[in-house]
């Protein structure tokens, strides 16, 4: 049987720290999933990207948003709120990926309807494990979406 | 806190000749008013308030007001003696007095914008009043001599009375005006208003008893000391404004009652009565001022200390939090280097990389501990009746792996109910039991946790049979970053016991090393008992 011919997952990572972005890329590579990653360095760019505005007009709508909270300027919560309050975008899974250990950040993530909240782990293996969990949201959404479209792929 | 807002309120006035006119009028009016209470009337006053007005005006509006002072003083003297030249001369003496006091204070005040805010300021005020009043008294005396108004033999006493009157006037009136012009320091609540109402009523009553009429065996009782508690009460509970108002109130009552022949200061010799009044009013003025300034200095210091501590804790938290990010990168990428590129490094490169990896891990642990310390230091605490046994179980569960791996035996008594934050207390248990497991010596660790009632507290013991701690270190082990063992022998950042102490202190308890003997190490701590529950022995 042929492998299902899936499009690579389109992932938006909103992250200003280059080292963390690189590590997330490493971890995604370890997840055995085809993906396209766009890294936005602040909340404004992140929102423009999901809204496909300006220079991102021709970019695909992401299947998953990985969101850092501590960003220069507006915090990641602004992106989360912008996505989850939009009639067009709210179904895009958003997983918060943060260095913060504050309980109130976790609560705020979920009160703003984040799909997941992950504390940035130490070491590649734990990172891969956490990202697989994050990717499960994207995959689940994809299946639903393609079934809803009535075009099961073989 | 500064006088600035108050001073600015009058700034417009100070720029206009109106300021000078106001100064002169005020000086003249208060002087005439106080002469009513002179002994004998119209002659020498116990307190000469105009000298205080002159000083306050200069402190608030500056030397530009000097002509106003001079005009007021000259007019007062002319109204008494009806002689032009002597009045002008005495007026100059009074003006020089104000100028001298102002110059001394200006140079010596700790903050010219907030005069009389510290105890040294009050000392300077006393010294400046004493020095400058000598000028006015000397000039005045010389004029009286020159005009033949004064007899030789009474010169010394007249000088003393004149001098003391001016000194007291400055000490009583200058702080009063400054206190009322600058913003108040008391946060008024209904309770405070009731308190000062009661204070005022009691004070008035006592003042009239003391100076008015408690006569025993035909002589008034010398019970002036009864005023002192009110001075202290006002000084400690209120501020310069209230304490100077008290001094003026008591002063006016004392002077007017003495003048009309009442109270303990009435003496055969009016000069003596005058001196007694001056001594009394000067004493309560300085006592009240020094005390209230001292109290407010302490309040300010305590506030700034609290703010500093808060800032420092915030700084520790933010710094530690921000350090997490680079440390994560160091750890992650050195690990990647190790797993993927090890073969590209020679032996030395591998060794260096090992050092980076282990240093990164250590840094990570320390930062975690710092964050933990900062969290237990000012995180919200839920002090509610709590089963300490449950907290202990939580702690032992998270130590489960270590306990099993090291073959340790942990035993426990039945644990009591205490008033505590369960999570925090389980941290304490985890730290103490964790330490016992860590410093175990050759044998597998045996740890026992017990509790016994001690008054309103429960005293907990965590006992082990490990390597012990030298008694001379019993205090230092609770300090931040203090470790007794060589760094490499046992892991940990050295913050564990500091964290425990912080937690226990926030629970209103105490923690200490009860015994550090080899084979018998006991840590003890106390936590308030949850009321009325006696289930420990059950």
Q: How would you describe the overall organization of this protein?
A:
The complex is a heterodimer of chains A (154) and B (538). With 154 residues, chain A is α/β, with parallel strands linked by helices. Helix content of chain A is 41%, strand content 16%. Chain A has a 5-stranded parallel sheet, with helices on both faces. Residues 146-154 of chain A have low confidence and may be disordered. Chain B is built from 17 helices and 9 strands. A 5-stranded mixed sheet of chain B has the order 4-6-7-9-8. In chain B, strands 1-2 form a two-stranded antiparallel ribbon. In chain B, strands 3-5 form a two-stranded antiparallel sheet. Chain B is elongated and about 110 Å long. Chain B starts with a helix and ends in a 10-residue tail after the last strand. At the A-B interface, α1 of A face α12 of B.
Give the class of chain A from helix and strand content and strand pairing.
Answer: alpha/beta
The quaternary organization reads as: heterodimer
Can you count the helices of chain B?
17
What global shape of chain A is seen? globular
Which blocks of ≥5 consecutive residues of chain A have pLDDT under 50? Answer: 146-154
Kindly provide the radius of gyration of chain A, computed on alpha-carbon positions and rounded to a whole number of angstroms. 15 Å
Order of helices and strands of chain A: EHEHEHEHEH
SS content category of chain B? alpha+beta
Largest contact between protein chains?
A-B, 14 and 14 residues
Strands of chain B, count: 9
**How would the global form of chain B be characterised?**
elongated
Described by strand count, sense and barrel closure, the largest sheet of chain A is: 5 strands, parallel
Number of helices of chain A: 5
SSE order of chain B, one letter for each helix or strand? HHHHHHHHHEEHHHHEHHEEHEEHEE
Number of strands of chain A: 5
Task: Please bin the fraction of helical residues of chain A.
Answer: 40-55%
